[in-house]
Design goal:
Immunoglobulin-like, 54 strands, 583 residues, mainly beta, 0% helix, five-stranded mixed β-sheet
């Protein structure tokens, strides 16, 4: 029983006959029952016509009660409604096709149509496309039907404004596109409407996920280290996906954006970085339209250096080199300022540069002569930090003896020897050599470490007359000069392989010097009658020898024999032989 408006009881309206109640529905202020014979009984208030059952209502198999109205579903799937119609609750759309289920709200109704709208999947990764399908219970007649399409979240899900269902067709498809996103899963809907009837489908728009990895999590700022950053997505984007890259520190400089190509799950990029004064924690973050994709932290370490000298201990008056070693190769040229703690002892440049891609560099240091051990400090400034090292300048070993031959013939190589009083230090002792006259000596000679003497070569020139030459050896403040006489090399003999030949016959001659030569040496040749006996203008005696053979060609002298004088000349001396050429 249902109480009436005045607190009393309204009598139920009972259909004729005796039938079992198949379903019971209760309103706020009235009740309804569906009998087993397909008729309906309503009792309670009637101020909005709740009990005004439409005449002849039967064949009902589904009943639903709203706030102040009732809806019935009949065999044949048609819908009937009565009661309050303040919001059109009981006005059944004229175009409503047969339905399969009904439900009533306080001031609205829902009808489940046998057709509807569906997507080809119920879970879509943000950024991927999908295909929607409208399925109708009844095909539209001539002229077809236009369905309005819409999305619950139109900024993230896009559908065409309308789709046309041709006459006679029960299905039609339409494209659905989504925006790439990295949010949490979003439950959303797509709607298709026509003549007041709205189909809807529900699906999940799943936000993509990304994972970032770094090949290096600790590196020296400003170095050539090029860490690989790899971003891997859970799902490959349907279209090229542009992502923003950010750094929390200006010393780490990634590209502004990276693009994940369509169909690929990952992208790799690197970033540049600057020199930092101290270790600092940094982070790279990848975003998509403000949404976080992923991020990773890493450490930028400062550029540091060591300073030494090669050699560290140097003899006064000889050079050394400063050597700066960095803890990493630099990506750009690095200027290093230098300062000198004792300009009277050493000299060095105000600065030098370590080249791009290099990890170390040298700078020159010159020293002055000293009579005792002295130290000079050198300061190199790297990354705003001063590195100080001392160079040790020691007095050089004393040069005591220079020996050279008293004489030598031209075109020879003889040895000179220098002697030190103290053994040469580590790295050896360098003695400077100079010369005068017709000789050649090396610019320096090095006495090996731990040794007290060293030989050096003296090469004599080809002189035409004897003359003196000098060799001077200098080490520190000590110089020693010695004299060598350079004598000309002269001919010893000239011989012919035959003293008499018939014209047209070839023969040989041999030139011999008094001494072997260590350098190739030329001798001049002449023939008194070159038309009868021909010789080369010069002949070369090879190094290590004192003689050489040369060819003589002859021609017919005519009717009578002819004597030909063959002459060899060297440095004012000459030798000759007479050759008889017969007809």
């Amino acid at each position: 029983r249902q109480a009436g408006r005045d607190g009393g009881l309204a009598e139920p309206v009972v259909a004729p006959g005796h039938h079992r109640v198949a379903k019971f529905e209760r309103h706020r202020v009235e009740s309804a029952a569906l009998k087993s014979n397909g008729t309906v009984v309503v009792w309670g208030r009637n101020d909005e016509g709740q009990r005004n059952i439409p005449d002849g209502l039967d064949q009902v198999f589904q009943l639903s009660a709203g706030g102040l109205h009732t809806m019935a579903l009949k065999l044949g799937n048609s819908v009937v409604a009565w009661g309050d119609n303040g919001f059109g609750q009981t006005t059944i759309p004229a175009s409503l096709p047969p339905v399969v289920d009904i439900a009533s709200g306080d001031a609205f109704n829902l009808a489940l149509l046998p057709g509807g709208v569906e997507l080809d999947r119920k879970s879509i990764v943000a950024g991927d496309p999908a295909v929607g399908t409208i399925t109708l219970a009844n095909a539209p007649g001539p002229g077809g039907a236009v369905y309005d399409l819409s999305a619950e979240h139109p900024t993230q899900v896009h559908v065409p404004a309308t789709v046309f269902v041709p006459a006679g067709a029960k299905t039609v498809t339409f494209p659905v596109t989504t925006e790439a996103a990295f949010h949490d899963t979003l439950n959303t809907h797509v709607y298709a409407a026509n003549s007041g009837i709205v189909y809807s489908t529900q699906f999940d728009l799943v936000g993509n996920k990304g994972t970032m990895t770094l090949s290096q999590t600790s590196l020296v700022g400003g170095s050539t280290s090029s860490p690989a950053v790899t971003l891997t997505l859970d799902s490959a984007p349907y279209l090229d996906l542009v992502l923003d890259v950010e750094s929390n520190d200006p010393a780490a400089m990634p590209p502004a954006t990276v693009t994940v190509p369509a169909g690929q799950k990952s992208v790799r990029f690197t970033f540049t970085h600057a020199i930092v004064p101290s270790s600092r924690g940094c982070a790279l973050v990848v975003r998509h339209r403000g949404d976080l994709v992923d991020g990773r932290s890493f450490t930028l370490r400062p550029l540091t250096a060591t300073l030494t000298f090669v050699p560290l201990e140097v003899i006064g008056g000889t050079p050394t080199r400063g050597f700066v070693q960095l803890n990493a190769a630099v990506a750009q040229p690095l200027a290093i300022a230098l300062s000198n703690g004792d300009a009277s002892l050493i000299a060095l440049p105000a600065s030098f540069q370590i080249g791009k891609g290099d990890r170390a560099g040298f700078f020159p240091v010159t020293t002055t002569l000293v009579d005792r051990i002295k130290y000079a400090s050198v300061t190199a400034v790297v990354n705003a930090k001063s590195i100080v090292t001392k160079v040790k300048v020691i007095p050089g070993p004393t040069l005591t003896v220079l020996t050279i031959p008293t004489y030598a013939y031209g075109r020879q190589i003889v040895n000179g020897t220098i002697y030190l009083r103290e053994p040469a230090p580590a790295g050896g002792a360098t003695v400077t050599l100079t010369k005068s006259g017709s000789i050649a000596v090396p610019a320096t000679v090095v006495v090996p470490a731990g040794q007290t003497e060293a030989d050096f070569p003296i090469t004599t020139s080809d002189v035409s007359m004897a003359g003196n030459a000098t060799v001077t050896a200098t080490a520190g403040a000590v110089s020693i000069t010695k004299t060598i006489e350079v004598r000309p090399i002269v001919l010893s003999s000239l011989t012919l392989s035959s003293a008499s030949v018939t014209g047209g016959t070839a023969l040989t001659g041999t030139v011999t010097l008094t001494n072997p030569v260590q350098v190739n040496t030329t001798v001049a040749l002449t023939s008194q009658f070159p038309g009868t006996a021909s010789v080369p203008a010069t002949v070369t005696i090879p190094a290590g020898s004192k003689s050489v053979t040369f060819a003589i060609t002859t021609s017919s002298p005519g009717a009578t024999a002819k004597n030909v004088k063959i002459t060899a000349t060297k440095n004012g001396t000459s030798e000759y032989r007479t050759l008889k050429v017969n007809p």
